[in-house]
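Contributing new records

If you add data, match the layout below exactly. Sequence lines come first and carry their own label; structure lines follow with theirs. Keep one chain per record. Anything else will be rejected by the validation script.
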Amino acid sequence: MYSLLGAVFFWWVEREYEQELIKQEKLFLDHLRNDTISRLKRLLLKSIFYRKILLWYESQLIKLKMTKGLEWDMWGALFYVGTILTTIGYGNIAPRTSGGRALSIVYAIFGIPLVLAILSEFGRMFTTFVSNQRIAETRKRQKLWDKRRRNYVRTIPIWLALFICIGWICICAGLFCLWETHWSYFTSLYFFFISLSTIGLGDVVPDHPHMLILMFWLVIIGLSIVSMLISVIQIKFEEWLYHLMIRMQVSFL
């Protein structure tokens, strides 16, 4: 609901300004095209080499600097909201108005902590689920259960959390290749890793962002798994520090 509400606000703020920019760009191109035709006619009549006029035309196009990116429709707004909430920020869509930029600041202030809390909770849920599965398998094999172990922190080995994280990245990279057919598997793998690490370089972005929105849950689940991995590493590190302090106390006493 928070994402949908944000998308509506961003679409309402940015859409009109974007339409005005598109209109101005079309008018400029029409004027440039007519001016170029008239110049070509004069040059051809005077038998001047026409390459000069083509160079002039290219220089005028460079000045235009038409922005390549997503349009500010509802899909584009939802995509932009997703990049804010996940802190990825691919850069292929961004607000141009002062109102849109101010709204981005306010939306991020409330949205990012909310998503971080959700991802943290999902990470704990994944850790608990995998840990319970391992405990159940252990109980089946041993048929005995030491009740004292129930007081231990439920966690999983680092290698297992890392395996789940890498496996999810590889699976999702293959899924991205299904609709981004011009991508190689390595490009898809690179894109998904950059997304999960929230770096968001923007050098590789999907040509079908609508499909990315429909499957944005892959990124959310992936971020939850990364949160689980970080949580497991933190728990193991805290346990190592605790045992190290115990050994140091025993040694000095």
